[in-house]
Design the sequence.
């Protein structure tokens, strides 16, 4: 449900079936190794509205977490990701093992995700362009101190 043109407009487009399977296998390996935590965002009836998670990265020369999320179109604009981000950050703080920072890299054109970062207290520290799914993607670079 997250691999549609509408859902991937800020991510350089949809993934092939092979790419989806590889990403899912990577998430499972990282979860089992304790290097990532992925969660379903569900409504009060248990229906899936999206996903949110964090994984180990190196950011500016030190260990950190990167976070990312998606919310299905019918649930967007209702604060779903913002409400999921708080408990997910609490989980990241509990598993930070020396990691001071959490990071997020939404596309500069993704107003919704950039707003979520701003409202959650992340600090915008710049922009970065990197290869993502085979093409250049310009992203805002957000950081949050997890130690406080």
Sequence:
């Amino acid at each position: 449900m997250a691999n549609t043109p509408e859902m991937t407009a800020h991510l350089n487009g949809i993934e092939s079936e092979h790419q989806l399977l590889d990403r899912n296998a990577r998430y499972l390996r990282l979860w089992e190794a304790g290097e990532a935590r992925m969660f379903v965002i569900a409504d009060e009836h248990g229906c899936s509205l999206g996903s949110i998670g964090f994984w180990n990265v190196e950011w500016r020369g030190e260990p950190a977490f990167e976070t990312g999320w998606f919310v299905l179109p019918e649930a967007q604009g209702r604060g779903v990701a913002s409400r999921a981000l708080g408990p997910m950050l609490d989980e990241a703080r509990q598993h930070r093992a020396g990691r001071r920072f959490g990071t997020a890299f939404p596309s500069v054109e993704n107003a919704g995700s950039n707003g979520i970062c701003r409202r959650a207290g992340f600090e915008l520290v710049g922009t970065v362009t990197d290869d993502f799914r085979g093409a250049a993607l310009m992203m805002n670079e957000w950081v949050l101190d997890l130690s406080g």
